Amino acid sequence: MYITKSPVSVIIAMAVLSLLSIGAEASDKPSAAGLAAISERGRLLAQYDWIAWHGTDAVMATHPGANPAGRYIAHKTDAEWVVDFGQINSTGDTFLVTDEAIQTGSSPKFQVKTFDPARKDTGWNVSAARAIEAATGDFGETDRPYNIAVLPAGAGRLYVYLYPAQTDASVYPLGGDARYLISPSGTKIVEKRRPHESIIETPPPSPGEVAAGGYHVHVLSDLPEDTDVMFVLTRKPLMPEVILAGGNMYAIDVHGVITVRPHDPSTGRASIP
Question: Is residue 96 assigned to a domain?
Fold first, then answer.
């Protein structure tokens, strides 16, 4: 949902969030380090999403009329982002890379390499491909396209994110997502997290209206989620998002920074940035 610059919109948004907050006791204020960690994962997720999109376009431009084979797996090096395309072999111990897109600088330009025969990888790509198979197998079939991202989770483990892809260029879906924590081998699900329940697809503001921000309420979580940060950083035009979660009010700005907003459940008053 949007908060437009119309005074009526601001009043409605405050009323909705206030009604939802009445009777809810504010949670303990989360640590700055905890919120910063969510911001950092969300930023990396947004980068992954962007890199996978443009890297795929670059490979498809190199092979007109064909789709890159198998999975796409992105990873960040000290100097750049790299997207590898291919598939894991039948024994599950080697990832066969058929194409690779390497970002040049910070632009959407990529250097594309094609390997024939396929390059054999036995490191990150293997664990990531296994982790994707474990997560997608648990998540099950979907009735719409989904994007997949894999990020390091520390101690050799991996995060696998599944979140709905856009089906309309002007609508940015939020929700219906999952985050899996996977063992270093990529074969065992350590933890499954459902950040949001249903998918929210808010159409663009009406002609003549200018959106000042968005807002939504968490049912499954007491904190903003990694995918909330990604949503703010990928939605166009850029605008902040207000979230009511666990009795606290949060705001995510256009840089992915999360702050706790002043909020008084006893009076039903909430501060909208």
Answer: no
